[in-house]
Amino acid sequence: MGERKVVYGDNWDGVLYPADGSKKKIMIVMSGSEGRLEHAEKLAKFLADNNVPALAFALFKTKHTGKNLDRIPVDRVGTVIQWLKRQGYDKIGIEGVSKGAEYSMAAAIEYPEISCVIVKTPSWFYSEGMIKKQPSGSCCWTYEGMELPFTPYKERHSNALGLMLKAGEYNVLELNTNKAVTENSIIPVERIHAPILMFSTKVDTVWPSEESCRKMCDRLAEKKFPYHYMHISFDHMSHMMLEYCGKEIKYFIKSEKADPEACAQERRIMGEECLKWISDVWK
Question: What is the pTM of this model?
Answer without folding.
Answer: 0.95
